[in-house]
Amino acid sequence: MAGGTDWFRDSFREQWDGQNAAIGRFNLAIFGKTGVGKSTLINAIFGEEVAKTGIGAPVTRGSRLYVDKVGHLGIVDTQGLEVGRDNKEILAELSKAMKEMRKLPLSDQLHVAWYCVRGLDRRFEEAEGDFIRRLDEIGLPVVLVITQVPVRDGQYHPDALELAKVIAAQRLPLAGGRPFMVNAVADPFTGAPVHGLKDVLDATFQVAPEGVDEALTAAQQIDTDRKARQAQGYIATGAAMAAGAAFSPIPLSDAAMLVPIQLGMMAKIGQLYDIRFDRAALMAVASTTAATSAGRATFGGLLKLVPGVGTVAGGAISAGVASSFTYAMGQAWLAVCQRVVRGKLGGVGQALDSDVVKAAFLEELSKVKIRRDDKQSA
Ligand SMILES: Nc1nc2c(ncn2[C@@H]2O[C@H](COP(=O)(O)OP(=O)(O)O)[C@@H](O)[C@H]2O)c(=O)[nH]1
Ligand SMILES: [Mg+2]
After folding, report:
1. What is the dihedral of CA 341, 264, 42, 136, to 10 degrees?
2. CA 205 to CA 199: how far, in whole Å?
3. What is the domain extent for residue 106?
4. Pairing outcome for strands 66-70 and 57-58
5. Over 80: is that where the pLDDT of 377 sits?
6. Ligand 1 in contact with 40 (CB < 6 A)?
7. What is the percent of the chain where pLDDT is above 90?
8. Would you call 316 helix, strand, or coil by DSSP?
9. Do both 237 and 159 map to the same domain?
10. Which of 36, 92, 182, 346 has its CA at a distance of 20 to 30 angstroms from the CA of residue 86?
11. pLDDT the model gives residue 56
12. What total number of domains does the chain contain?
């Protein structure tokens, strides 16, 4: 029924936009000389799409610092200003921007800086140390990344170790208390593997304000455990909200009041996995209409498909049923999102087939184990 699907899509869009704003944005400033591997590092941690985009917009009016916003990530770059040559100007621009940003919502502020030096350059001047101290002073915590460091037999290249020593001697205020050595792409010639990315990410989480944790979790693409933990949090919240909505048992005919809660949960998980709206909407329609022909009547039909959810006694939905059903929806949806992201449901860039998504969702739904504490009433 076309009407049902339109209604559904609009509701999903509304939830999507609301959750998008709730997750917010993590903003990273990246510094380092041309060629040290900034773009490569960003690609490796945040995904290909990020570095492909344009030059962005000035961070504040008239600024020469530009922010490039992609999803839940903002990358601030010093276009035309070069670290080393233009340090004074960069710092002046930054401290001005930091002051102006203080009045803005957290998502529009700058949160962390990455300062990159190439491991085999073996040079770290005092001026670079001063620059890092100043960044810290104006309120930007600094993760120092030593890039393009080859490892062999578990040993870092001696030149990079020497560089790390020189840096340590400067006693800089660094996130994680030390520089981090990375190699962002494998080098087929030397056989050097990728390493160190997760440490850089962890140090970034450590110093980023708590309020941007969700955005950073969504933006990064290397720590899938962190994404999964966050998704479980969203599911727990959704289940609790559903229990609250059915605090006094609601008639089955009012089951639609649970739909916004479930769609909100699904929208948030979809964004955590960096799925675009159109794709997520197709997936959501396919999933929630799995047992019915119209988007509206999601509840009654689907309920029967989840083993252990319980029954609708006397035609009313109890808090326990509402919560465990929402929990099951969340788990199945999460599994489907993970399969899509891994390219297991239709290839990357390929259109998703509704029937394939539907079958996957039903399969996942039948696998969900309802635990006692998910089931009990509020
Ligand atoms: N092997 C290897 N090469 C890298 C790495 N990072 C960057 N490169 C190469 O170094 C060059 C410059 O990298 P790029 O990311 O464009 O530097 P940017 O100017 O700082 O953004 C490119 O040819 C990259 O392929 C790395 O971690 N390992
Ligand atoms: Mg670059």
Report:
1. -150
2. 10
3. 24-219
4. antiparallel
5. no
6. yes
7. 63
8. strand
9. no
10. 182
11. 79
12. 2
Mean pLDDT of 217-223: 97
CB 144 within 8 A of CB 174: yes
The reply to whether 278 and 201 lie within a common domain is no
pTM of the model: 0.91
Last residue of a domain, one of 173, 197, 219: 219
Residue 32 Cβ < 6 Å to ligand 1: yes
Asked if residue 282 and residue 137 are part of one domain, the reply reads no
Cα(105) to ligand 2 centroid in Å equals 28
Q: Which atom of ligand 1 is nearest to the CA of 116?
A: 20
Backbone angles phi, psi at 375, to 5 degrees: -90, -30
- pLDDT of 372 > 60? The answer is no
Q: Which ligand is nearest to the CA of 181?
A: 1
Distance CA 77, CA 56 (A): 9
List pLDDT tens digits, range 2-48: 456 788 889 999 999 999 999 999 999 999 999 999 999 999 999 97
Look at residues 199, 219, 239 and tell me which one is the last residue of a structural domain: 219
Decide: 329 and 266 in contact? Cβ < 8 Å: yes
Q: Decide: 34 in ligand 1 pocket, CB within 6 A.
A: yes
Distance 290 CA to ligand 1 centre (A): 46
